[in-house]
Design a protein that fits this description.
Blueprint (H helix, E strand, L loop, with lengths): L5 E2 L10 H7 L15 H21 L6 E4 L2 H20 L3 E4 L5 H12 L4 E4 L10 H7 L4 E7 L11 H11 L3 E4 L11 H4 L3 E5 L10 E5 L25 H16 L1 H22 L3 E3 L10 E6 L4 H10 L2 E2 L15 H5 L4 H4 L2 E5 L6 H22 L1
Parallel strand pairs: 1-11, 3-4, 3-5, 5-6, 6-7
Antiparallel strand pairs: 2-8, 7-8, 9-10, 10-12
Helix pairs in contact: 1-8, 2-8, 3-4, 9-13, 10-13
The structure holds pyridoxal-5'-phosphate (PLP).
The site of pyridoxal-5'-phosphate has 15 residues, from helix 3.
Amino acid sequence: MKGDKTYLDYAATTPIDSCVMESMLPYFQDHFGNPSSIHRWGQKTEAAIEESRAKVASHLGCHPSEVVFTSSGSESDNLALRGTALQARKHRKANHILTSPVEHRAVLRTAQDLEQTYGFELEYLPVDRFGCVSPDELEKAIRSDTSVVSIIHANNEIGSINPIKMLSSVCRSKNIPFHIDSVQAASQLPLDVNHLGIDLMSIGAHKFYGPKGVGALYIRSGIELHPILTGGNQENGLRAGTQNVPLIVGMANALEITVLEREKHNRSFQHLRDQLLERIPDLIPDTQITGHTTWRLSNHASFVFKGIHGNHLLMALDIAGFACSSDSACKTGDPEPSDVLKAIGLSQEWTSGSLRVTVGRSTTQDDIDRFLEVLPTIIERIRRSND
Ligand SMILES: *Cc1c(COP(=O)(O)O)cnc(C)c1O
């Protein structure tokens, strides 16, 4: 037993691994030099950044010069989309952007800003009822004046994994830059950029037991980006600003641990997760699983319950000691139904009652047992109070 508080929201964020925490500490006080400085203080922190870059690159299967450090997964998505779209327009008059309706807001809102503020033509690829994009639809929609294609690797709300290799081969055959948002995928899926065949990939450390406020963007050599943060020449001139050394060190170590322990954790995540996917629809009438049942993240279970308001459910679960999420964590309090749930074809009576339950490294069988005991009672109580 771990007291009466059970965290089941690892897709929203994860705690920092204690080894990662330890590795960051010297860079807050002892080694504080500006990595751009010539003297040994600067050399020390520059070396720490370059070691971290090499470490991240080795786990992505790329060259260190292809890794840019950013302040978050969101910033990586912004740099990927704005950077490629603006550059492609400047160099080859490409004015078309392809994405999907089930992207994280960091991609969706950026694509919409490129449409509304910069006049790009934005087109959404259709998704199936699992929220996946089909390579055939991409093949039909991609054009020679497409500046960038951006698709989510694994969906943060409904857990489904996109067929990235098939999508990337379509982009490659047309020679169009392909970005994937792997921020949610990175804790569980292999990220080898050549195996996946992609050109740009966003990750963010706090989704894989690293610190918040740091991310990375992989940019395949030869893909040119217009910088979105101008100033000093840091990060290859693509991202001005003195680097956050401790956070970068932490992210590299967090990624290393994640990759080394991936299979072990995936096995235990899936064992716990499968009980949620199997039992909840049996225990609770008028329930649907959202997202793919097998082709999904190993730690991720998500549902919709008819006649339930997601926020009521989250508050009742919180009182009972369980932290979960509805739609995406950033949307709590927002009465608008989720774009993702609408895009996979759910009607209004279902979309308001979504629940995401995500397990992590500290989740135990006891946590799942207690959750499965409490959830049906709470749902029944809410439904009764609606009558
Ligand atoms: C969390 C998340 C982001 C945003 O990352 P931050 O580091 O929190 O800015 C982007 N895309 C997906 C799929 C995510 O899950």
